[in-house]
Amino acid sequence: MFYSEKEAENFLEKNGFVVIKRGYANNEKGLENALKGFKFPLVMKVSGKNIVHKNSLGGIILNIQDIEKAKKAFVQLSRIYGFEGVVIQEQGKGKEVLVGIKKTSDFGHAVCIGAGGVNTEKLKDVSFRIFPFDKKEAEKMISETRVSRKLNKEEKDAVVKNLLKICELIKNYSNISELDVNPLMVNKKQAVVVDARIVFE
After folding, report:
1. Which ranges of the chain would DSSP assign to H, the alpha helix?
2. Which of 96, 134, 155, 187 is 20 to 30 A from 149, comparing alpha carbons?
């Protein structure tokens, strides 16, 4: 079973993760209603059960400055194959980190931390641990990545908290086979889930 971004973010929020403010629309009238209460600039992303790699499809539009641009973005995203609607978010600020889960046949659940954003695969800056692990091990994981050099102490602490929340998630939902949170937007206040996908067995 696959959770689209919308479903995955709702699931993570219910399980104690901080998720960015967001809305959803599947038609232009719904878009106008969904935009109420949001501050520009916005990000709009294509949403659909069969859409996985939004970025490579041109399915993420950044820096939307007003309602007219939001309507144009909606039309553009609606042309993508598999479109079911759009996710609307306020444009977050912070450092982009990747956290996730991969269930392996040999070792069970592996948890990862690394550099997030659109260049994740190119950067290959990732550290892994097998579940379960403690706070000390989570701190070691972060120190093994190059992205950790860009994080101050408070930001590293915020990422550690999220790694431990991921351990809680595995404990409570052992049927999770994959989780990708990319990016987890980290700033001095907190670490916020901006995009996520989940696969259950």
Report:
1. 5-14, 28-35, 67-78, 120-123, 135-143, 153-172
2. 134
Domain spans, the chain: 21-90, 95-200
Parallel, antiparallel or unpaired: strands 22-25 and 85-90: antiparallel
Specify which residues 95 forms β-bridges with: 186
What kind of fold does domain 95-200 have according to CATH? Answer: D-amino Acid Aminotransferase; Chain A, domain 1 (3.30.470)
Cβ(82)–Cβ(49) below 8 Å: yes
Residue 146 has phi, psi (to 5 degrees) of -70, -30
CATH of span 21-90: 3.30.1490.20
pLDDT at position 4: 85
Q: How many CB atoms lie within 10 A of CB 66?
A: 11
* DSSP character string of 71-90: HHHHHHHHTSTT--EEEEEE
112, 139, 140 from 1: Cα distances, Å: 21, 32, 32
The C-alpha R_g of the chain, in whole angstroms, comes to: 17
Which tops the pLDDT comparison, 55 or 11? Answer: 11
